[in-house]
Predict the structure.
Amino acid sequence: EAEVAQSPRYKITEKSQAVAFWCDPISGHATLYWYRQILGQGPELLVQFQDESVVDDSQLPKDRFSAERLKGVDSTLKIQPAELGDSAMYLCASSLVSGGNEQYFGPGTRLTVT
Amino acid sequence: GENVEQHPSTLSVQEGDSAVIKCTYSDSASNYFPWYKQELGKRPQLIIDIRSNVGEKKDQRIAVTLNKTAKHFSLHITETQPEDSAVYFCAAGPNTGFQKLVFGTGTRLLVSP
């Protein structure tokens, strides 16, 4: 069964450094999501892509976070510079289309900022 | 925007008992309500969902009910088993379009043998 892939699985970085996360969605899925999950809370949407276009980035801290999905397939989320409060699990998900469709999650990248 | 509240935050039951998790939402435009299960160290996975055109949906030991008037929906697990132990998240969002899915804060269910 096809799965969403993410790398790295774990990342430890010092504050003020740059970090990048990669996601490869299930083949054929047009919609890709990046979520941040703080321990003990539900996933919070950071950015949503439809193909290569951003359709929602209202909760993305744009002064330090950026995301791209250049060819409408895989995606990269970058943080520069990282802050202590960015420590969290970063989950990528994909779905065939947006709205009312099952989202398939990747294993996540656990980020620790020291 | 949408706001989803979930209760309880933790729930402990004995094997064989029933478990109920409740969620409320604020946006009357939401009409898609999925439930995700996240086992320790694993990715969230969809276990059941319901759309606003039905009031109840059942899949073996799992059922979900929806009350659109009161803006609340619930997950019911019957005959609980130790492998049901996990964190369960409810969510609310649109059935179509690009408006985002909003998740609740999660319920940690512990089923003791």
